[in-house]
Amino acid sequence: MTAYVYDTGRPEVHDAATRAYLEMLEVNCLDPTAFPSVVEMERQVVGAVADLLGGGHGVFTSGGTESIMLAVKAARDLAARTRPNAARDPAAGTRPNLVLPVTAHPAFHKAAHYLGVEVVAVPVDLESYRVRPGDVAAAIDEDTILVAVSAPSYPQGVIDPVEEVAAVAAAAGLPCHVDACVGGWLLPWLREAGAEVPPFDLSVPGVTSISCDLHKFGYAPKGASVLLFADPAMRRGAYFASAAWPGYTIINATVQSSRSAGPLGGAWATLQALGREGYADLGRATLAATARLRQGLAAIPGLRVLGEPQSSLVAFAGDGVDVFVLADEARARGWFLQPQLSYAGIPANLHITVTGVTLAGVEAMLKVIAESAEAARRRGPATLPDGLVELVAGLDLESLDDATFASLAASVGVDLRPGAGQPEMAVVNTVLDALPAATRETILVRFLSLIYTP
């Protein structure tokens, strides 16, 4: 599994986190005055992240999406207090906006969707896959409330020019958020292992907030992220309080109200179990595995790594090899490679997240990728029935019921009905890749609805 799962390869660390998670399972984070252990654990976990990422004042959240959502909320509310003349009239089509690269995580789009904010997406350089500071400056207008960059961006594992973009934001009087959900607890250890990692955290002038997931390269159980603000007043903007009812006091640091302290306990225990030397050792192994993976991919005919990854996220495209077919071939051999659709001039590719356990399996992975690439070359690209893309693009997908949509999907070999088994995804990914983003999103929502329909 080359995505979604972050593994140290150390069962004793996993066991320690599990015990702590279960110990805190029934503890509720809703009221910090009721459970002092919650406050103390959060202080220690947030403090550890702040010590590594340039200081600041933090919030423990359920994941990167929630951290980013709170960062956008804090920026929106700050702008409402300090820039009352900015245009905010939905009826007239004017809304606050956030400026970010096209490679920024969709969590920003989700936050904007929920919070009534517009996304202004800036293209990236198609050689380096990094955003250009001048393009960011040109995209900022009077309604911009936040500028965001990635360290690294997920698609190609490269680090945006944080120092330069933060300076652009500061010159415009705007906050700048660094999405280090992947890199926050990885890049410092890669740097210690000898990698060249540019400054990216709260020590950079102009950076006002940063997000860091501990359930990624912190190797904590899922549900663990930290959002840091340089200014405690801005952190208060992420909070929510309500006294407009006759019940118990409501004060939330996160989007959730009632939530288990299990993830917090698991994160605390993981940090204690690994310690500085444990993370440094994992950083060295991760750096070595990433270098070997890049070297091995370069030696496989028809494959090329995109950009110059500065982290342990590696994406590769195919020349004469359909990467979607390659992914199906690898899946048949027991390996999951994460497909990424083409967008904004960036070709379709496959993504691999290298973790602490990858070094032990990197040769086996490369062997499977080489075999799968050769099999994909022999099979040729995924073939679609004539006119299928045009048919799908012209359908009123919202008007179809689930049964009709299921039949349509099954007609092109993607049978997601109960009992049908795991379909090959090359066809569906090829169809999605040929469609505009809005149509892709509609189809994905329909797939989700279909999967969860009995």
From TrEMBL:
<dbReference type="Pfam" id="PF00282">
    <property type="entry name" value="Pyridoxal_deC"/>
</dbReference>
<dbReference type="GO" id="GO:0008483">
    <property type="term" value="F:transaminase activity"/>
</dbReference>
<dbReference type="InterPro" id="IPR015422">
    <property type="entry name" value="PyrdxlP-dep_Trfase_small"/>
</dbReference>
<protein>
    <submittedName>
        <fullName>Aminotransferase class V-fold PLP-dependent enzyme</fullName>
    </submittedName>
</protein>
<comment type="similarity">
    <text>Belongs to the group II decarboxylase family. Sphingosine-1-phosphate lyase subfamily.</text>
</comment>
<dbReference type="InterPro" id="IPR050477">
    <property type="entry name" value="GrpII_AminoAcid_Decarb"/>
</dbReference>
<dbReference type="InterPro" id="IPR015424">
    <property type="entry name" value="PyrdxlP-dep_Trfase"/>
</dbReference>
<keyword id="KW-0663">Pyridoxal phosphate</keyword>
<dbReference type="InterPro" id="IPR002129">
    <property type="entry name" value="PyrdxlP-dep_de-COase"/>
</dbReference>
<dbReference type="InterPro" id="IPR015421">
    <property type="entry name" value="PyrdxlP-dep_Trfase_major"/>
</dbReference>
<keyword id="KW-0808">Transferase</keyword>
<keyword id="KW-0456">Lyase</keyword>
<keyword id="KW-0032">Aminotransferase</keyword>
